[in-house]
Design goal:
single chain, mainly alpha, 6 helices, 4 strands, 47% helix, 8% strand
């Protein structure tokens, strides 16, 4: 009885291998046409797709915000000299501990109860993070990060323009 089940399993394995191979062939871009020239080199195809997606989606340069605090607050009574100083540990701790325990700073992140409970372990890392943010050294582009998949708009895809993006 076990041998019969193994033979049936082998038949199914062959079927699934064929399905997977067919799906792989269907999802693979073997060639594309650019300005009437067929391209089969995978690196060149990837480069064309990247350029096409980049021109469709566009990319704004990362703005570097600077403020002239004296324009915003021209009153002579205000001392604004400390606004550009690095964050202090006391400021960061006060900010963290003033928030509710069940508040979450970002999706898929720990609540502030976690930050408060393990403050002694993570305070130095938060200090480094805060100061790097203040200096403008953090790569914030990954905060809004998505993967884009390309799907064919036509039965036969010849050019990169025949693809549409989904995320």
């Amino acid at each position: 009885m076990v041998q019969g089940q193994l033979k049936e399993g082998d038949c199914n394995t062959s079927f699934f291998h064929k399905v997977i191979s067919g799906r792989k062939r269907k999802n693979c871009i073997i060639s594309t046409v650019d300005d009437g020239v067929e391209i089969q080199n995978q690196e060149m195809i990837a480069s064309k797709i990247h350029l096409f997606a980049k021109t469709c989606l566009g990319a704004l340069p990362t703005p570097r915000l600077t403020f002239d605090w004296n324009v915003l607050y021209s009153s002579p009574q205000l001392d604004l000299s400390g606004l550009d100083d690095n964050f202090s540990m006391e400021e960061i701790k006060k900010a963290v501990f003033s928030l509710g325990n069940m508040k979450v700073p970002e999706p898929d992140c720990s609540t502030f109860a976690f930050f408060k409970r393990f403050w002694n372990l993570i305070c130095d890392d938060l200090m480094v993070f805060s100061n790097e943010f203040h200096k403008g050294n953090l790569d914030l582009s990954r905060l809004n990060y998505v993967f884009i998949s390309l799907m064919s708009k036509k039965e036969v895809t010849l050019t990169v323009q025949d693809l549409r993006s989904t995320s």
